[in-house]
Amino acid sequence: MGLKARVTAKVVDLFSHSEKPLENTSLHQGDHGLFGPGSVSWEVLGDVSSFVGGIRALMVQAAHPEVAAGVAEHSAYREDPLGRLSRTAFYVTSMTYGALPETEHAVKMVRRAHMGVNGTSERGRQYSASTPEYGAWVHNTLTHSFLHAFQVFKRPMTEEEANRFVAEQSLIGEKMGASPLPKTAKELRTWITTHPDIARSEAMREAIEFLQDPPLGRAELLGYRILQRAAATTVEPQLQETLGLTPSRFYLQAGKRLVRALRWALRFSPSWKAALIRSGAEFDPKLFRDDV
Description:
Layout: H1 3-14, H2 40-45, H3 49-61, H4 65-74, H5 81-97, H6 100-114, E1 118-120, E2 126-128, H7 132-153, H8 159-175, H9 185-193, H10 202-212, H11 218-234, H12 237-243, H13 249-266, H14 270-279
Antiparallel strand pairs: 1-2
Helix pairs in contact: 1-13, 3-7, 3-11, 4-10, 5-6, 7-8, 7-9, 11-13
């Protein structure tokens, strides 16, 4: 097995611990899903920079004490980190590239998982996963992180492209009942960085410690640490201070090199390819890997 195949197998295995996304997407021929060919969302989520964006989002989400408490008290991320990673990837992939029935299935799956997720944070505030404002924090930080990681690790975007991505992703937020949902990239960044609920918490500290050193194999952990520290460097300074993150120009450059290497090995997402085939769009198959 060559180097490219070995790297691909290692990465794909990390996301193979739950239901497989888009397994029956070919049954929905002609269905463009929420976005369709030519959307910014398909390009952004189809690139390996989304790995960095996902890590970044998990760190930023921990800055909200009620959201962090919900994860700490109702998630099995410590006992089953790869399962949680795979379920999150299933949701993101299904909502981005799935046919409309597949997006509805993903929404129902998340809503079932959120049932009973409620409690009291350490600062005494009640929380529930069904609260629109808490859902907005999770959704908006994910959107902003995917967008920012793409711009740092793939290519710059025009203001129009960035705004299109945010507007497209807001359709997912609406499906999940999240509110408010900023519609431009500038509004989104401002909403996150000036959010009044941001604060330190014990749940935040535990989440950041876990994200800095998760239980992975030696080779996977080495690559992950580079991406995590690169992602931390892209977080806005005011959030870095709250989260206790230390920016590093060395890791930012190392992260860019690693992302380029992963892009060479993994090429573009097979889910993007499957969605293009389902939509009847023309594309160059050499740009995509074959596994789905």
